Amino acid sequence: MRHLLIPVILSVGLLNLETPFATGQSSTALSDVASFQATSSSPIWPNCISGNAVNGGAYWRFEALNTEPNPWWRIDLGKAWEVEKLTLHCRWSDPSGPPRLNGATLMALGPDDYTKVADNWVIEGFRQSTEEGGALYAITIDNGGEGWNGVQYFQIGGIDPTDPFGPSLGVPSLTILEFEAWAQVPVYDTFINGVTATANYTAVHPGVSPTFLVDNSGMDDQSTLLGDPTARHYRVSAENLWVTPDNPSEPPVLTFDLHGIYDLDKIVIWGGDQNEWRQPKECLIEVSTDGETWTALADANAEEAGNYTLTENDLSEYLPLPATDTLDVDAVAASHVRMTLLSIYRPHPTTGATNYGFSEVRFYGTETSITDPIPGDADNSGTVDDGDAKILAAYWGMTGESIVWGRGDFNGDKKVDACDAAILAAHWGATRAGESVVATAVPEPGAFALLLGLLAGVSYLGRGR
Q1: Could you say which of 184, 212, 231 is where a domain stops?
Q2: What element of type H or E holds 156?
Q3: DSSP string of 42-103?
Q4: For the chain, does the N or the C end have fewer beta carbons within 10 angstroms?
Q5: Is residue 1 part of a domain?
């Protein structure tokens, strides 16, 4: 059994994994259809199973036994695909990495009796750090621009186990860190693909990065319906996730760039699935249409910190795990989403250390355009209604830098007061129809009473002047 993730310091940087898909929304997208597919191989080095080469990460690898005279590795893509390109990663943690894959033969085979669908390809181009041009541990092969039509199986072999890193040196002959096959797959209709992510804290480990939260790595839908909110995340030790180092001095912050303006419908979160002590609990989720001015989403957890309390992941099964939270956000306009993590469910049971982790975060909505907000529309829903009145009431009387539009400060004076109530009342029912703003709604009884109370405050302050 693999050990659970312990962040370690390495002398090399994180592998630079390419993001091969375009941002935005479309009916299909380029996806790694090799991910978690069935593999087989010649005898292996202990614990270096063939499936390690398609687990989506940059740490675990496949290594053939060095006494095997004809080492090989094979993948079954499950059906025939039109594969546009392959991305191969060699071992990067020692100088023998490139020679363990350079010179190998790549075969592409169809579904019927392993018939070749293209000429064999000799893998080459990996470089050690001491070679001219510097290290190159990942290469892309596209069969001379033709790709591979109708391919179901890829096989790699042909490495001589005695030259240059053979049994005399006690190392494996054929080693593949990661094998990726890129083909067009259908996309869930409201899934926002190509999101990028950054974090103010990230544990130093090759399988850990905020990028892994948004690149679909580890997900079981990469060869079916990409972006499926019911998809599951594979638990692979130390791979395809983001975690912080122990005891961050400030709250961890994740910032997601959607690369466009969207009316967000929901945010789906797969909680940390490695250890029970990395489970975020309370968090503050904010949105922005420019990446600079932030608006907190409506409070969904009452007296608890932040505005959302996330669900603890159930780690009782070592299986692909479903999402832990689906957050409905009511079509709020956003180009960026920021998550500030404020607490965890429990610290490390032995050391007492605090750290945080997620496995995947996905966003859903429809692309829109930037428009000026409607005065009084605190939640940017496109209508001034009872939701905005409730936000105004929740932050009534508060002041400070944290008091922004999304908390009822409509005139930008960093406080929520009678002036903001007057703005909301004056625009009550306003909604956006095309490029114009029209009034159509009537306050619900509870919201109407709330408005009367706020307007009474306006009147009282006016008489006292």
Answers
A1: 184
A2: strand 148-157
A3: SSBSTT--GGGGGSS-SS--EEB-TT-SS-EEEEEEEEEEEEEEEEEE---SSTTTGGGTTT
A4: C
A5: no
209 shares a domain with 351: yes
Q: How many whole angstroms separate alpha carbon 227 and alpha carbon 200?
A: 26
Cβ-count burial 443-459 (b if 16+ within 10 Å, e if not): beeebeebbeebeebbe
How many of the other CB atoms lie within 10 Å of CB of 232? 19
Full DSSP string of 169-209: GT--S-EESEEEEEEEEEB-TTB-BS-EEEES-----TTB-
449: containing domain: 386-463
Contact partners, residue 25, CB within 8 Å, separation at least 6: 187, 189, 190, 191, 192, 193, 366, 367
pLDDT at residue 202 in the model = 94
Residue 48, pLDDT score: 92
pTM (2 decimals)? 0.73
Phi first, then psi: what are they for 145, rounded to 5°? 85, -5
Q: Do 265 and 353 meet the contact criterion of CB atoms below 8 Å apart? A: no
Same domain, 178 and 321: no
> Is the confidence at residue 13, as pLDDT, over 60?
no
Q: Is 137 left (phi over 0), alpha (psi -120 to 50) or beta?
A: alpha
Is residue 22 in some structural domain? no
Distance CA 414, CA 409 (A): 6
Place of tokens 């919201």: 447
Asked whether residue 21 is assigned to any structural domain, the reply reads: no
**pLDDT of the residue at 14:** 33
Task: Give residue 39's pLDDT.
Answer: 98
